[in-house]
Write a structure and sequence with these properties.
It is a single chain. It contains twelve helices and 20 strands. By secondary structure, it is an alpha/beta fold. The protein has two domains: about 325 residues, Rossmann fold, CATH 3.40.50; about 100 residues, ANL, C-terminal domain (GMP Synthetase, Chain A, domain 3). The longest helix is centred in the N-terminal third of the chain and has 22 residues. The structure holds 5'-O-[hydroxy(phenylacetyl)phosphoryl]adenosine.
Length: about 425
């Protein structure tokens, strides 16, 4: 195949697409009811029978499933096929508690590869490209997902995995990588190292496919400038398959959800009520083609909104706005809701790079928040503004964005640890006391 773009699926008229979803949903609900005791019990408890689900308009009748359910059912409780039919597991990066382990049949892997292939093509990828994958390989879905997609498109795939920046740049320059796949924070670190090493003229990158963590438009702009590329967002989660659940096209204005495989809903996280298009709430997914680990109405905890506005790329699949963070990323500081992405936007608007850390503590029952941000080398070399003046300016910017006073410490270049995968931006010591 010359190009993995699948216009008949990706540009399907809405009515046809929804008919396809309804048909697949009906089959899937029966399949899951018959094969997963956990779902059967939940549906029975709610008095819902598979026959009650006649199409996507009945989706709201199904029970939700949460991360806690996944943990409780670890490891095999949600498996819908005999273990001998599974060919792979992947697992979440797992912060606390039990990891989530997701299972795949070969067919599940093929569909996942297909979704990632679509993402690469939407970023301009063809078989002429050299696709440099420095998401981690292993249990994390980033490396294996983009690797599979890159093969399917027919790119020359460089399975670099994460870390060893020097080697990344060497392969990038020697083999002429054209598409870079990694977390946005690692892309920023690579850009910094490329700039410092004087390699900017030797790289042939044209596009980046960056995801796995929240990033701002300001960060996109900085990475695009620094590497001379177009930076595309890609979203996904282990529970639902991995990267490629949704991705950006040339419009770079929201990520098209692969609706022939996943049905998306936005709900009010407090009440569970389904919200209309355009309203911000928690993203919920129902898998309609998965075999081994077929989650239905899975609450992602990611907050965003959906839009069906026509897209100039021709794709009809609904677009999700960049997640503004997870409901569990939100910090409540002095009673105010604070998102790391709001802090990042202020810093990058003032010319800093995304090398920062947010330290939160509670001292004598009072919340304290300090943002540490690195000076850029240009700022350090400019004697006309003092560090105190810079700090005061950031304090002012954060006060106007968040409405609370945040302590700010501007630190020398290179003093904050660089990430190779998902960046750790927040250190909340308050949890230590709970
Ligand atoms: O991060 C899958 C992935 C790999 C996506 C590579 C994109 C690229 P998990 O480790 O299970 O899977 O983490 C999933 O990461 O619920 C979001 O909170 C966050 N996330 C993923 N992509 C984005 C994105 C992978 N583009 C969790 N923007 C999700 C913001 C993202 N957050």
């Amino acid at each position: 195949m010359e190009n993995y773009y699948q216009p008949e699926i990706e540009t399907m008229p809405l009515e046809q697409l929804q008919a396809l979803q309804s048909e697949r949903l009906v089959k899937q609900v029966k399949y899951v009811y018959d094969n997963v005791k956990f779902y059967r019990d939940r549906m029975d408890e709610m008095g819902v029978k598979p026959e009650d689900i006649k199409g996507i308009d009945d989706l709201h009748k199904l029970p939700f499933i949460t991360k806690d359910d996944l943990r409780d059912q670890y490891p095999y409780g949600l498996l819908a096929v005999p273990l001998k039919d599974c060919v792979r597991i992947q697992s979440t990066s797992g912060t606390t508690g039990r990891r989530v382990v997701a299972f795949y049949t070969q067919e599940d892997i093929d569909i996942w590869d297909e979704c990632c292939a679509r993402a690469i093509v939407a970023a301009g990828g063809t078989k002429e490209d050299v696709c440099h994958v420095c998401y981690g390989y292993g249990l994390f879905t980033g490396g294996p997902g983009l690797n599979g997609g890159s093969h399917k498109v027919g790119c020359l795939t460089l399975p670099m995995s994460s870390g060893n920046t020097e080697r990344q740049i060497q392969f990038m320059t020697d083999l002429g990588s054209t598409i870079l796949c990694c977390t946005p924070s690692y892309a920023a670190n690579l850009a910094e190292a490329i700039h410092e090493g004087g390699f900017r003229d030797k790289i042939k990158l044209k596009a980046g496919i960056f995801g796995a963590e929240p990033w701002t438009e300001e960060m996109r702009h900085n990475i695009e400038e620094a590497l001379g590329i177009k930076a595309y967002d890609i979203y996904g989660l282990t529970e639902i398959s991995g990267p490629g659940v949704s991705f950006e096209c040339k419009e770079q204005a929201g990520m098209h959800i692969q609706e022939d495989h996943f049905i998306a809903e936005i709900i009010n996280p407090e009440t569970g009520e389904v919200l209309p298009e355009g309203e911000v709430g928690e993203l919920v997914f129902t898998c309609i083609t998965k075999k081994a680990f077929p989650l239905m109405r899975y609450r992602t905890r990611d907050l965003c909104y959906l839009t069906r506005k026509k897209c100039s790329c021709g794709r009809t699949h609904v677009r999700m706005h960049k997640p503004m963070g997870r409901s569990d990323d939100m910090m409540i500081i002095k009673g105010v809701n604070v998102w790391p992405s709001q802090i990042e936007a202020v810093l990058l608007n003032q010319g800093y790079q995304a090398n920062y850390q947010i330290l939160v503590d509670r001292i004598q029952n009072r919340d304290q928040i300090e943002v540490q941000v690195e000076l850029t080398p240009e700022m350090e070399a400019d004697p006309s503004v003092t560090v105190a003046e810079r700090e005061a300016k950031v304090v002012k910017g954060l006060k106007s964005m968040l409405g609370i006073k945040v302590d700010v410490k501007v630190v020398p270049p290179k003093s904050i640890v660089r990430s190779e995968g998902k960046a750790v931006r927040v250190i909340d010591k308050r949890h230590l006391y709970q």
